[in-house]
Automatic annotation (TrEMBL):
Tetramer of two A chains (F13A1) and two B (F13B) chains. Binds 1 Ca(2+) ion per subunit. It comes from the Eukaryota. Keywords: Acetylation, Acyltransferase, Blood coagulation, Calcium, Cytoplasm, Hemostasis, Metal-binding, Secreted, Transferase, Zymogen. Belongs to the transglutaminase superfamily. Transglutaminase family. Ca(2+) binds at residues 444, 446, 493, 498. GO terms for cellular component: cytoplasm; extracellular region. Gene3D superfamilies: Immunoglobulins, Transglutaminase-like. It comes from Smithornis capensis. PROSITE patterns: TRANSGLUTAMINASES. This is Coagulation factor XIII A chain. Its EC number is 2.3.2.13. It is found in: Cytoplasm; Secreted.
Length: 736
């Protein structure tokens, strides 16, 4: 018996540590016991706490329509507790058992966080009432006294920890301190405050704050440079339990509570915990087109399901790809009050050795040698930008910072990336933490096509300096359109500033291999280009290759076209087309050649983003020189149609109808539909067995919208042969 007792005792005790008096305090969820009576010594026999001032009730003004949530822009959170932003005053009312007498009575507030609250760590905060509130510092001031009640205005520090605090009211008596009982109804969440000038995340433009902090839906741009596609994503940062789920992520990452007032630290640990590599984080990535025991990345319509599933199961949610990592990361940042936006970089370099060049090796015939080629160009890659000051860097590098939760390469031993200053990337100052060289390479690498001669020398056939990072975009403020931000990451191609930024980056250690030593003499008097016809999934289309011979010589070009089905990461799955022909190029003239592609050639191997990659190489027989070019293209995927039926009024039942017609020459199997709309309906899924070719599926859902205003409905369809099918509808919900 005594043995079991002692083992239980041991379990409770934290492990001893010779370096620190207290164990690490890195859980917002854990609590300590706080005594209701803290005696100063022997309590005299006749002492009755009831004889002294004591608290009967505390009123928090915490409803969405009341002053605190209105003034602090937290009225949208679906959470019954008080939520305020730091560095800005909020109100509470305390009811005592008798009128408060300032001459003799003494009380103060105590805000506590975690299991080992300490004043010097910011996890134990005593707040004494005084006559003035200093901006951006903890304080309290009595603003109103009436009967037994007082009204307090409380100011939190503009740099205090972000998370959930427990509140106690303490009253001094000659024999000891009397405290209120633990009451979770008075818990207070304190968030970042982009409206407060002293806060590290202060953003001065109201329209931008409404977009980057308060907008709960956004747009993900995907597709490729030639063919930008967009779809909506529901961030849902105000939905029920999401705030707690986001705080849990910081507990999961074991971020010390004292570091949680610093947006740089929060972004860095979050970029690691968003992916499941090395820390069992939120989302397991999968890029191999098989999604057994999970949800295909393209089927998600928003972040809420993913975060809630992780919060309850504590196990990685399957599966995600870059836009899913970025969507969930954006929810996390906006939920905590850090301004954030989702970025798409088209033709993004995944450069395995960060040498600013992607090497594509060609074999003798001019085909890409997949055995040697390790680098890849992603059609697009999504990451996030978070807005904050960077006191750890020289002046001028604050503002937007790149953070990326997609696991690509390790940083300080973990799969994470950022925060890296966008300004530092633009100017080539990649010496400033964190991970700037990797992001610099993603937007600035060159593509080098080279071929090994029989004698072993490497011949560079072509260098493409403009393909990578040629378009970087985000959603515009206040609308669903696209805003190009390429200029925020790089200077104009070929400008002096661009060269200078590159030289700076190389000076700071970005590897750039010289191309001089490898015999580079391109064929300059012939231009080659090719165009892929826009086509709808399931139809035939053609590729047109055109040559312009600017010389006075006749040439013949042995031309080779290779069509590959690729993941959006640029990694090839299968070659579905190879076609070669001889092209006669007359002097001073242009000529073009069509190559037809039938749907039967590509349908069986198609991947979810319907993405193709074409390589065209032409050997000029008379000179032995090679022209090489590559382009990605995507098929048009049919969309879902959404409509509504009934009155669109908050609190009244309405219907949402989703329709889809199967355009393929085959039956769709294992069809799943998802539908969600923040403030209108929670995510619902429905399985359908199959949809025969040309037939239409109709799904009607009844719901009762909660919030009035302009809302968005988002739907997705997923099946074995067809993925990335979306639809959306803006609906104006009226006040009742």
């Amino acid at each position: 018996m005594s043995e079991t007792m002692s083992t239980n005792e041991e379990k409770k005790k934290p492990p001893l540590n010779g370096r620190r008096a207290l164990p690490p305090n890195n859980s917002n969820d854990e609590e300590n016991e706080v005594p209701e009576m803290e005696a100063f010594g022997m309590t005299p026999r006749g002492f009755n706490p009831k004889d002294y001032l004591h608290v009967v009730d505390i009123y928090m003004f915490k409803d969405p329509h009341e002053i605190n949530k209105q003034q602090h822009h937290t009225d949208k959170y679906y959470n019954p507790k008080l939520i305020v932003r730091r560095g800005q005053p909020f109100q509470i009312q305390i009811d005592f058992n008798r009128p408060y007498r300032p001459e003799t009575d003494q009380f103060w507030l105590e805000y506590l966080m975690g299991r080992y609250p300490q004043q010097n760590k910011g996890t134990y905060i005593p707040v004494l009432p005084s006559n003035v509130l200093k901006p951006g510092e903890w304080g309290a001031k009595i603003t109103h006294r009436e009967n037994n009640s007082i009204r307090l205005s409380i100011m939190s520090s503009a740099s205090c920890i972000v998370g959930k605090f427990r509140l106690y009211v303490a009253v001094w008596t000659p024999f000891g301190i009397l405290r209120t009982r633990r009451n979770s109804a008075t818990d207070t969440y304190i968030l970042f405050n982009p409206w407060c000038q002293q806060d590290a995340v202060y953003l001065d433009d109201e329209k931008e704050r409404e977009e980057y902090v308060l907008n709960d839906v956004g747009i993900v741009f995907h597709g490729n440079v030639e063919d930008v596609k967009k779809r909506s994503w529901s961030y849902g940062q105000f939905e029920e339990n999401i705030l707690d789920a986001c705080l849990f992520l910081m507990d999961k990452a074991e971020l010390e509570l004292s570091g949680r007032g610093n947006p740089i630290k929060i972004c860095r640990v979050a970029s690691a915990v968003i992916n499941s590599r090395d820390d069992n984080g939120v989302i397991a990535g999968s890029w191999d087109n098989s999604y057994d025991y999970g949800v295909a990345p393209s089927a998600w319509t928003g972040s809420v399901d993913i975060l809630l599933e992780y919060y309850s199961s504590k196990q990685p949610v399957r599966y995600g790809q870059c836009w899913v990592f970025a969507g969930v990361f954006n929810t996390f940042l906006r939920c905590l009050g850090i301004p954030a936006r989702l970025i798409t970089n088209y033709s993004s370099a995944h450069d395995n050795n960060a040498n600013l060049r992607l090497d594509f090796f060609l074999d003798d015939e001019g085909k890409v040698d997949t055995r040697l080629t390790k680098d890849s160009v992603w059609n697009y890659h999504c990451w996030n930008e978070a807005w904050m000051t960077r006191p750890d860097l020289p002046v001028g590098f604050g503002g937007w910072q790149v953070v990326d939760g997609t696991p690509q390469e390790t940083s300080d031993g973990m799969y994470r990336c950022g925060p890296a200053s966008v300004q530092a990337i633009k100017h080539g100052h990649v010496c400033f933490q964190f991970d700037a060289p990797f992001v610099y390479a993603e937007v600035n690498s060159d593509i080098v096509f080279s071929r090994r001669e029989k004698n072993g020398t490497q011949v560079i056939e072509r260098i493409d300096t403009t393909h990578i990072g040629q378009l970087i975009v985000t959603k515009e403020v206040g609308g669903d359109g696209m805003k190009e931000i390429t200029e925020e990451y790089k200077f104009r191609e070929g400008s002096d500033e661009e060269r200078l930024a590159l030289e700076t980056a190389v000076m700071y250690g970005v590897k750039k291999q010289a191309t001089r030593d490898t015999m580079y003499q391109p064929q300059t008097d012939i231009d080659m280009d090719f165009q892929v016809q826009k086509a709808v999934l399931g139809n035939d289309f053609k590729v047109t290759i055109s040559f312009r011979n600017r010389s006075r010589n006749s040439y013949t070009a042995t031309t080779y076209l290779s069509g590959n089905i690729v993941f959006y990461t640029g990694v090839a799955k299968t070659e579905f087309k190879n076609h070669s022909f001889s092209a006669k190029l007359e002097p001073s003239s242009s000529s073009s050649f069509d190559v037809g592609i039938k749907s039967s050639e590509y349908m069986s191997d198609l991947l979810e983003q319907a993405s193709f990659h074409f390589f065209v190489t032409a050997r000029i027989n008379e000179t032995g020189k090679i022209l090489a070019m590559q382009k990605a293209t995507i098929l048009e995927i049919p969309t879902l149609r959404i409509k509504t039926k009934g009155e669109l009024v908050a609190g009244k039942e309405m219907s949402v109808i989703v329709e889809f017609t199967n355009p393929l020459k085959q039956t769709l199997e294992n069809v799943t539909l998802r539908l969600e709309g923040p403030g209108v309906l929670r995510t619902i899924k429905k399985q359908f067995g199959s949809i025969p070719m040309n037939s239409t599926l109709t799904w009607e859902v009844k719901c009762i919208p909660i919030r009035p205003g302009l809302r968005k409905l988002i739907a997705s369809l997923n099946s074995d042969a067809l993925r990335h099918v979306y639809g959306e509808l803006n609906v104006q919900i009226q006040k009742p």
